[in-house]
Structures are given as C-alpha cells and as structure tokens.
Amino acid sequence: MLHAPYRPRPMTPPAPDPDRFAPHAARQMAGMFDDVSAGYDRLNRVMTLGRDRAWRAGLAALVPFRSRVVLDLCTGNGVSLEDLLETGRLVLGVDVSARMLARAASAYGTRGWGPRLVCADAFRLPLKAASVDAITVAFGVRNLRPRDQALEEMARVLSPGGALVVLEATAPGRGWFAGLHRFWLARVVPALGRLSPDASAYRYLSDSIFEFGDGSEFERALAAAGFQLDVRRAFMLGATRLWAARRLPRAGEIEAGAAAGVHPARPARLGQGDLPYAARAAEREWRAWTLAQLVTGAALAAALVWGLTSYHNYRSILPLRPWEQMALEVLLVLGVVMFSVRTVVLTLRILGPPPRR
C-alpha cells in the first residue's frame, strides 16, 4: 500500500491572547504573573543581558531624596524596592499578583523601614488623593490599559509636584540596531519563554512591547495627564527607556516645597550592626574578586583562540587520527565559547550594582 510522503506542518507562534490586552485586565495579569513568578527574575536577567539591576538602580536614583512616601507600582517580586529603601521613608509595593508579592514578602520580611506590600488594582489604588510623593514603575506600565486612565490614577495619588519615574522596554525604532532588536523580541524572547511554566506569558511580553511602541505615544499620554517630562534616557541603544516626570499642580493646588532633608546616621540598606565602612569594604572586595575572575576568563578565552588558530595551521602534520582531530577542535571551540560568554557576563556584572547582601 502506498502512502503519501510525510510533510510536517509548519510551526506558527500562538496568536496573542486578546484577554490580556483588554482594558482593565487585572485578573488576567494576576493569573499570568502568578504562573511565572518562580523564575521571573532569572529569565529577566537573561533577557536583559544582566543589565536590569543597573537600570533599576538608575530609576531609584531619579526619585527625589525629599520623597517621604514612595509607591512602587507593578512591584512584582520586589526587585526594585531595595534601591528605594531609606531610613525615614515609607515605601509601598503594589501589584495584582499575590504570588509575586509573596516572594517580595519573603525577601524583605517585616523589618522596621522595609516595604509595605499591597495587592491591589493599579486603576483603583487604595490610597488617598495626593498621599504619595513619588511613584516608580519598572517594566509594568505597558500592562496598564487604557494607559491614560492609569496615568490619571497615578496623578490622583501623587502630591502636586510629585515625581513619576518609569522604566520600560520599548519597541525597535530606526537605525542599524533595529533589525537585531526586532529579531530578539520576536524570536529570542518567546523561545526563552519555553523555560517558563507558561510560555504564552513571554509571547505576551514580546507582543506587549511591540504594542507599547518606541515611547513617543507614552510621552504624549504623560503630557495629557498633567505631567511635565524632565528626564528622558535610553539604554541598550533604545531597547529600554527611562522617563522622569513631575505632576504639575492643578487649579487651586499649591506645589509642596522641598522638605527638610533627614540625614540618616547610616545607609538604610546596611544590616543591623553593620557600619558604612564595612559595607564599602565588602563592595570593594566583591569588585576585586569579580575583576580577578574577569581577567582570568578573558586570558583563557584569548589562549584558547590562539590554540584554535594554531591547530588549524598545523593540523595536517599532527599525529592524530581524524576522530581525534575532530574531538580536539570541538573541545577548543566549546572552550572559546564558554570563556567568552563568561567574560561578557562578568563584565556586565562588574558594571552593575553589587549583589544584594
């Protein structure tokens, strides 16, 4: 009996989930982030090539020192909270995902000036009007639709003159990097998402970045909501952008003056019993050790490249059988790749903030 030849069906990516793009999709967002909460931070580190912590530190640096109540909206597992903590400052972390907040709670506990975590919808914040001095949003504003209503709610709880600082992944613009950026978002990000319990969440991540655009529409929405844009920065050739804006006083409102600075006796991120010079010494030690590993890895990568080049020049006279030559070449190539990747990772690590203590 004759059979038709087997022809595999072409694999096509799943269509975007329309429910996740619907207005006020708090329930859908909560379920999606609950499902991916376990490995969310690790995959973010891979997808941003290890730079997300440095970008979050840049976000925190734009929060005015005088801000006494800071709201971190879409806080997730609380990665951005550490850089916001200061003695004398109340930091609120708000998110719709209970599992994400549970991970944040396990990381920070209930220490004195630790963050206060709240499970709530970004469109109905359980806060009084003009009750916070600054709002930060890291990689979350693109999930809030309609965006103008989300910004209106942020403006409601911000005091006149309060700061809004937003860090967000953006779609490719123009330029030579755009093609690579588009390939990374459309192909690599969904592929990496297969390492997650819910691969569709990372397909949504890719689609939501394209939907958010290059940030120009968001800037127009900021202006329409009564914010004045003061700072605009781009990271990784525009793949991620950072905005700092100020909520302009409305009719009848008076902008709060700069509060008197409260100078803590020691930085808030020090542990109990630690001294500032001990923290600085620990950071110097970490950077020195990381630098030593970086130099060693780079030297080994260079040595393996030299060895691979020499092998190709002299392999015809080496007393090795064909399979031995192939095995040696494979080992040299794997060594070059491994130590080159390690060198890049260590370089990104030493350029970023020190690890959480």
Provide a descriptive summary of the structure in words.
The protein is α/β, with parallel strands linked by helices. 44% of the residues lie in helices and 14% in strands. It is built from ten helices and seven strands. The protein has a seven-stranded mixed sheet with strand order 3-2-1-4-5-7-6, with helices on both faces. Strand 4 (132-138), helix 5 (147-157) and strand 5 (158-169) form a beta-alpha-beta unit. Helix 6 runs antiparallel to helix 7 (199-212) and helix 9 (276-314) runs antiparallel to helix 10 (322-351). The model is unreliable at 1-14 and 258-279 (pLDDT under 50).
Spell out the key features of this protein.
single chain, 357 residues, alpha/beta, seven-stranded mixed sheet, 7 strands, 44% helix, 14% strand, elongated, disordered N terminus
List the helices and strands and how they pair.
Blueprint lengths: L25 H11 L3 H8 L4 H10 L7 E5 L16 E6 L2 H11 L7 E4 L12 E7 L8 H11 E12 L8 H15 L6 H14 L3 H9 L2 E9 L4 E8 L28 H39 L7 H30 L6
Parallel strand pairs: 1-2, 1-4, 2-3, 4-5
Antiparallel strand pairs: 5-7, 6-7
Helix pairs in contact: 6-7, 9-10
